[in-house]
Give the backbone structure.
Amino acid sequence: MSIDLSQFHQVFYEESYEGLDAMEQGLLEMDVEAPDDEVINTIFRAAHSIKGGSGTFGFNQVAEFTHVVETLLDEVRSGDRAMNQSIMDLLLVSVDCIRSLLQDLQAGDDPDLTQATDLKSQFEAILNGESASSESVGEVNSEDNTAEPIANEGGGKGYKIHFVPEETLLQTGNEPTRMFRQLAEVSDDCIEVSANLERLPSLTAMNPEHCYLAWDITINKAIDRSEIDEVFEWVIDDAEVVITEFDLSDSTIEEQASEQIEEPIAQAVSSEVESIAPEPAADKAPVENTAEKEPAKAKAKAKASTPESSSIRVSIDKVDSLINMVGELVITQSMLGQLGQNFDITRVQRLQEGLAQLEHNTRELQESVMKIRMMPISFVFSRFPRLVRDVSRTLDKKIDLVLSGENTELDKTVMEKIGDPMVHLIRNSIDHGIEMPDVRIAAGKPETGTVELNAFHQSGNIVIEIKDDGAGLNKERIQQKAIENGLIDESTTLADEQIFDLIFQPGFSTADAVSDLSGRGVGMDVVRRNIASLNGSIEVSSETGKGSRFVIRLPLTLAILDGQLVKVGEEIFIFPLVSIVESIQMDDTAINNVGGHSDVLQLRDEYVPIVQLHEIFSVNKDEPPADDNIVVVVETDGEKVGVVVDELLGQQQVVIKSLEENFKKVEGISGATILGDGTVALIVDVSGLSKMSGTSIKQIDSAHKAA
Amino acid sequence: MAKILAVDDSASMRQMVSFTLKGAGHDVIEASDGVEALKLAQGQSVDLVLSDVNMPNMDGITLCKNLRQLGTYKFTPILMLTTESAGDKKMEGKSAGATGWIVKPFNPDQLLTTIKKVLG
């Protein structure tokens, strides 16, 4: 029976990555001095499973490497070896190493074994050095080579087996008759079995669950001794088994020969032998793999870029509540169905009640379905202890990471995309925010700095805070840098928030600024852009000497949006509600033409560039522009844009459909939705719009000054 | 055809074992740890139990001890799937009442050959 093991590979990868995460987490929370048994067990189990799986599925390089890791862990687990910092460091690096081996394999590449080989020799040095056990590494492969290639030697030997099981043998689930059957199979029925009744007690003294019989078995065929050993392998400690060889007499051989002619058993033997003979999964699988490799390669590559998004784990609670909702929905539906069968006007009241019920059910169902995609943010948070540990070690800083709100849930897609910006922010906090221990002591602060991560829900958004008690942002340096880079004038006076906000401006940080800037600003524009692409926002506040606080706000999901519907000509467009600052009615006089080509709106003491939505999207507008325009002021990347529309309609939640997947990418449009009456409305991409308007505050400011 | 209870905390191993056994015409019940396996075992009898040793919540050795306490599992073959080639794990399994063991890594053919030893 041939089974294609590659069908289990995806599951193996997924669970191995999970196992590696568990190992990493366990190692990080472990107290090196007094490791918790359960934590060590968990780590050991994870390594053990990865080794077992990788061996089974033919990933021998992984199995071999994991074997040494497991051996060391086993010694720690059984108390033969004390945990120490260097072992812990080695284990952590090994986790990374195994992960990268697996990623290579998953991508269909040959894994790079340089690191593994290096680490393996380090493990071996530890294992052999002070040594509790010195299991060889090769064992993972050799251990199942119990059966040796079968050599049918010369004239051959038969076997006499004296088999006296312990009385309790049956209670281990072993069954002598099955064993005889197996012996008969391997010896092609050239077997004689006689029972020895000596031990049989009287009927009254007999325990029906005990085995009192003993047997003498003669095998009149030259078979390999290992075949017999295998049969008795499991009972060898529960029985007296004496195996003696004897020369098969000529007559028996002849007898046997004639038998062989009678029955075409030779084939049966060889096939049996084949299946028993050790054929480690490894030998086979790579062959299968290579055959399949080429076509599979491209596919695997594509997958590798988003390895974790292919499946999702949902708690039973959520599924149950979903089933419950659907049940409610079915009840409401049948209620309405009944109502419709002989409907008359007197029952309008009940119809309305039913419809209200339906609306209620639908909303609940929608919320429940959305919840399926929601996962606790601990999935993102869990990678930070390691990051903080590694970065602070490199920098020789002492840092405590405090996590709270790990159970706050957010959409899986959002979660996958928020990890990188957060890494960036945390790295910056440690690198630029927290001071060196001696500096901290001199400033009267505790030697160990603190980075706090917090997540919570707030009015339909998830808020993530990253707070440190470091030196805070250096206003002067930021201002100076901004002037150098031409972001602001020397004469510009800015409020603190505006200064801090400069770090998010593209072009704020230049390569040489990265290393010598004591504040922050390393690629912060990228962070803001990534967060903005999730319809989120980021703000920073800071106090010199006390630390900084970054606040990220994200929508709970990317699938639904709170939108403001507006009308332009006959078309309906939708603005994300979060991006709208205000909507005002303006007469033409408030709109000035600056510099000959761009319109700006004077909004109190600010100038805001104006975009005509109908011009940008070429919407036919029959009526001449009304005297009083409606301007929707939206904000993106810290810049305001006024968008002129005809009419403000209602606000509603809309389900976002991708325009790119269903049509093609359109500049200034982030997606589409279907409204209650079935018409399609486009969702405006506010940041795209401001780019398309071709003007920015700076240009307007300077134009205004010039004017 | 036999009814087999397969216990392993690793989903990929469980799938592989289960797929192999089903392919050979057996009925397979899956459990992801000893606690779950014991719960499943209490409601029915099976012809064979295949269990991993290292599992969270309840390991294979403890499962084996507990199964032998149940009347219906007194003589049921219980095979441990183990990577430990060392004797003491095997002994521990034996003294807990395990029938035998299969050493990991094994391939589907080896699995089928081995279970033939205890079925029927």
User: Anything to note?
Assistant: Chain A touches chain B through 51 residues (CB under 8 Å). Chain A has five domains: 5-142, 157-276, 316-372, 376-555, 560-706. Chain A has a mean pLDDT of 78. DSSP finds 25 helices and 22 strands in chain A.
